[in-house]
Amino acid sequence: MQKSIARNPNMLRTLIGLGLTLIIVLGYAVYSASLDSEYYLYTTSNEEVDVQLEQQDQGDGTVVFTAEVTGAFTWVNFSVEGLPAGGELEVTSGGQRWWSHPALVEWESGIFNCLAPDDDFEIVNTCDRSYTHSATPDDEGLTRLRGLLDDELPLSGMGSLRAVNETVAQEEVEQMIAAADSTVTWRIVLRAEHDIDPADVTVTMTVVEHDFVNIEPFKLDPVTEGFWSLTALLGCLFLVLLLPMGFYYGSRLKEKAEARGRDAALAEESEHVGETA
Q1: Can you tell me the distance from the alpha carbon of 122 to that of 118, in angstroms, rounded to the nearest whole number?
Q2: What residues contact residue 153 under an 8 Å CB cut-off, 6+ apart?
């Protein structure tokens, strides 16, 4: 390689110039992406609200509660304490189907989520969608039911979208929240083999409401991104030069080994000639 550089002194300049050009191109790409981003991050309130329940006339060994909620909601949670073993919690929504699954009660621990990618890597809702869902008491005597009213709103309260500018992005977010805004009437029925005393059970209901909070352009940190880009560039150059350098040093070691072998053979031959003389 030293001979090649000596024969062609422009080779080293070419390598250095190519590396600097790549660094400048990567730096400009990071800088331009940080200045004008087509992606925006928006935040919603994502606030859990308690719902006031109204008890209806008791009949046929059941206890019935009703409630009405208005707004843009994602999660809806029902909890019953004191329901006898073998009892059942049945919840029906009026006018709007909703998603639910028994494993959703463990959602907070990250075990299950309704939204998951399919074979085409598109996000789909894998939960059961119906007007009525039910649950039974667990081993601790607690009955829980969790459902999802709207799967377009951000479940964590933060989302992203692509738009031509911030004004259009905010309008799209507000339209999404307005589309999810609705009034839903709920009917909660508690059943058991024997009559249930309403004083022995505690029923709670909460919903997670979403209102628009703010929106901002997605920004990159030029320093951090530039550092990682430079690291990637140096890594690529190292990999590109590793193979020819390996061949070069391998051939040099082979030449030195052959030279040592020839020197040893010549020395042995000279010694043998001297002894015969």
Answers
A1: 6
A2: 44, 72, 74, 159, 176, 177, 180, 210
From its phi and psi, is residue 95 left (phi > 0), alpha (psi between -120 and 50) or beta? left
Segment 178-225, tens digit of pLDDT: 999 999 999 999 998 888 888 889 999 999 999 999 999 887 766 776
Nearest Cα neighbor of 235 from 26, 29, 10, 31 is 26
Q: If you search the block for the tokens 């259009």, which residue do you land on?
A: 168
**pLDDT band at residue 9 under the 50/70/90 scheme:** low
153/172 Cα distance (integer angstroms): 12
pTM: 0.69
Residue 47 Cα distances to 61, 79, 114, angstroms: 35, 18, 20
DSSP for residue 256: H
Residue type, 70: T
- Structure confidence at residue 62 as a pLDDT band (50, 70, 90): confident
Position of tokens 């699954």?
101
